[in-house]
TrEMBL record:
Protein name in UniProt: Mechanosensitive ion channel
PROSITE patterns in the record: UPF0003
Superkingdom assignment: Bacteria
Mechanosensitive ion channel MscS C-terminal domain location: 499-568
GO CC, alphabetical: plasma membrane
Membrane among keywords: yes
Family: Belongs to the MscS (TC 1.A.23) family.
Amino acid sequence: MEICVSFQTITITFYLFIPLIVALGLSYFSHKSIAHVSSRVITGNDEVPYLQRLLVAFISILLPSFVCVFCIYLTFFLLHHFSLTLEKLTEVFHTIGHQIIMVFLINRIAVSLLSPKMAPVRLLNIAPSSAYQLIILLTLLGGVLALDAVFDSIYWAVSASLSLTIAKSFIAVFLVGVLLFIIAFIPLQFRRKRFQNEEIKPLPWPLYIRIPLFVLGLFLIVMDFLGYIGLARFVVQLIVTSSAFLILMYLGIQSTRAIASKGEFIKTGIGHTLMKWFHFEEKTMDQLGVVISILLNVVVFVLCTVPIIGKFGFSYSEIGALFWQLMTGFQIGNMSISLISIVMGIVVFFVCLFIIRLFICWLDGTVMERGEFDLGVRNSIKTVISYGGIALSVLLGVSTAGFNLSSLALVAGGLSLGIGFGLQNIVQNFVSGLIILIGRPFKLGDYVESGSVRGIVKRISVRATELETFQRQTIIIPNSNLINNNVNNWTRRSKMGRIDIPLTVATNVDPEYVVQILLEIASATEGVLKNPAPQVNFTGFDKQNFSFTLAIYVPNITSTSKVNNALRFMLYKRFLKKGF
């Protein structure tokens, strides 16, 4: 029996050492992480930007506080699991754990803001000696409030007398008021040296800080002696707790601004890893940084708001129930809205979109490329699958979000009415785009002409087609114009084309001799096809001139400048030599 008891005692003791071991491991990781971030921010003698100092301060608060919270709650779990506490003392242990977390948080906020050992990342320009005094006083302030709460819990557990509770609260409120007086009169150092040998004297707090601290301390002491101990205690707990979490919220929100800044997310370890694995562009990484910044802002806001709301009399169970109701669903009229379903719908939409993109890349790079599909066919297939995938992703996302698709009939009716009036051209362009993608009267790279516009097709979408002229001008033509009007496709079957060069010669020259010279020059010009052979048409004459048209064929109708220039130079030289 004794052996069994001893073994059980050893087992329980071992499990109780787990939080200590975990705390040591996480503390080492936290210290290394903070040192790594600080070393990346502090470079040489350059002044560290304000946003980066905020980021260091926020991480210096968040990581150690997370370690403290995790270890405290792990201890709660083990104590409850092995039934090592009496039922009456459970609330006492919970209060002690929560107050340890609160005092630790106040200490970390003070150390991170004042940073007496790390001047480059210090947020407040305060002398190191004053910074140490402030850190000690703020920690003592948190400790007094923590002891007050712990003794409250103990007195409640042992059913202590009311007079003892009032005396304890009187002493706690009085000590807090005295500490605020001391903090208000600590000498500081805000002004920098204007020249090297100038002696800097410590300066007091600015009036806009000193006066509120003095008034608050005086208010607490006066209320304490007048007998309004509960009011004074409520005010000081509310101010201290709210100030701590509001500072933490400010640091968190400002730190996420640094992540959302252009080019900053790439510099982080996570951003560098994502860019290395997925080969994202810099613009995509900046957009991802903005999204992560928004998500972190929401998390920081929720985590810092809940403790502040709790000080107004709401229990954590009530706050949790309200939050769960907001997340799972609430009614607005006849419509039920669930934030979790909406988030899941957005996730499903982006996941489906990502899968569609992967499928298109696989189809284009594996099947169509090896099958030697025409470039226009490949583009048409990719475009149709892309738009179909977007439509499917939207439907799946909307369904997952909990919206009834049958209720969209009213929306469809409204759209039908809109199509009859304002959306007519949009739908016409959309249908025309589908006809172009399926019928393929032209494809990417074709040289087309429609009315007074001509150029090379660069992009075909369901709304418009993009042309690029030889002057590098981009022209966007609605698809309905291309369907309803004539379109000349110079390269539909092949890029070979004909160039007509008109010219006139005086009537004192034999026209047959002119034809012979034109054919000789055309055949000798580089870039002119021999088959089909060049042709000369005698198009007309009058009393002074004979009119001819030289028709030549080139292999690529989209690049004729070189052949045109060479041919005209040779014609000019030969005519000048013959005296035409």
